[in-house]
Amino acid sequence: MTVSVILNTRIDELNKTLEELYNSIGELYDSYFGKFTKLIRNFTDDLKKNSLNVNEYYEHVQNLVKEFKLDIEYLVKRHGTSAIDDFREFLIEQIPKLKRGMFIDDADAEKLKEVLGDTDDPLILILIIAKLYDEQARKLFRIACGQENEDLRDAVLLLAESLRSISVSKPVNSMIAYLASLAIAYGRRDIAEKLMSKVGEETRWLIKFTCAIARTVTYLENEGIQPRHEDIATTRYGEI
Amino acid sequence: MITYFLLDTSIIIDLFEYFEKPRSIQSILSMARNLKRSMNKKGAKGKEYLRWINDEYRPTLVYDFLRNNCRANNCVITDITSRLELPVIAIRWVLHGATVFPMPLFLDIIHNFVDFEVIGKLRSNGFNLIEYSAGKDDYEIAREITKILEECFKQPIRRFAIDVAILAVALNKNYHFITTDVDFVNMLERCRFADRIVCPRFDTDKASFGVCDIELKLANKTGIIHVIDIKYYLSKLRNNSV
């Protein structure tokens, strides 16, 4: 499969192409990191020209995340406790982007706006957004592991990893996973592996491990089995 | 030297929970509302927040931990988990919600049960888990642990039979024991098995979020002391139901 075919491949479960997925997630990241779009443009240009230096991009990423806007420590340091109103406004501004990214539909967007507007605890605000990304990441992991084409599978899986990293407040890992995903879409698995190793990840293991569990869970669900943590307590200690 | 991690059954369930179908935004928002309501109650703030965060992120933390630590084909599961506890739990899953029990359903269950081999599925899908068969020496240690527990509770202990057997393997083989079973860890602490509990992140006197290291010591009849580290992912917020 050539590069352009992968980018234009429609992912049925998402009703969008891989390229559209990159764009919608990139648009969100641009709000959080600043200059993200520019970084991506340079990165894809360098990939095409075959002149990419992994170390340089790792440094770029480290510089970009210095003002990561979903990090509570950053907020407190930057604005003190009065940061809450600005932060809430910032999150509300992201809702249209979340809609475009198909993270949420119109009805959910309205509810989200209402809850964000009504919440004055920065930790709860961050938790809501983090959970949104976490849920989207889980969804993408499962979709990725169901793809037959390996390049498409791995590119989507690394995008899921990028969202997951945001949700656990690891912005460097998030951006690196996004870049690694792009590298795979452009046929440069070697670059993807080098990038991921910069944040201590082995790409092959990450894919193998994640898909082993995702496929087992899909199998269980197809068998009508839904694992629950409570079942252990009941089995071990009796009805609670 | 390779570090081996013995995974409690609770860890396998957490892994599955992480990959369950994603929740709707309504349920996320409803959780946020409940959290807000709880936090408005006097004195409940930190406690409720941490309980929520622990419940929500426990599967994520388990996924993270295993992904980072099982790369060297060094994660172990006992046959107690794969051949005893998981099949029993599987029957519960299959039966979940069934109030009437007609013969066709029963036959379905038997069919599913024969096919159902969770650890085998994980392995055939690419997650290499070493399966360890517990033997006589492991059960010797399990008996010693049981005696100590019975002294602690002043009565025969049946409720912790499976956990004790798995823990005994960890002690005997010097594996790190990985669990998220809050009742079991509470029991270890209550009976002074756990000498040292260190929760490096988000630490408060009553709750913790993240990975806790627990140093566990056991002296057997000959005076040899087994020491292992437990990685423990839950807070101690819930009431001890022991």
What does this structure look like?
The complex is a heterodimer of chains A (240) and B (242). The model of chain A has no long low-confidence stretch (mean pLDDT 85). Chain A is an all-alpha fold. Chain A has one domain. Chain A contains 13 helices and two strands. Helix content of chain A is 75%, strand content 2%. Chain B is an alpha/beta fold and 242 residues long. Chain B has nine helices and seven strands, in the order βαααβαααβααβαβββ. A seven-stranded mixed sheet of chain B has the order 3-2-1-4-7-6-5. In chain B, a hairpin with a 5-residue loop joins β6 and β7. The longest helix of chain B is centred in the first third of the chain and has 25 residues, at 45-69. Chain B is globular, with a radius of gyration of 19 Å. The two termini of chain B are 38 Å apart. Classes of the chains: A mainly alpha (240), B alpha/beta (242). The interface between A and B is large, with 56 and 63 residues.
Global geometry of chain B: globular
Q: Based on DSSP secondary structure assignment, what is the total number of beta strands of chain B?
A: 7
Percentage of helical residues of chain B?
A: 40-55%
Cα-atom radius of gyration of chain B: 19 Å
Q: From N to C, what is the helix and strand string of chain B?
A: EHHHEHHHEHHEHEEE
Structural class of chain B: alpha/beta
What separation lies between the terminal Cα atoms of chain B?
Answer: 38 Å
Distance between the termini of chain A: 54 Å
Widest β-sheet, arrangement of strands of chain B: 3-2-1-4-7-6-5
Largest sheet of chain A: 2 strands, antiparallel
- Counted up, domains of chain A total 1
Helix content of chain A: over 70%
Helix vs. strand class of chain A: mainly alpha
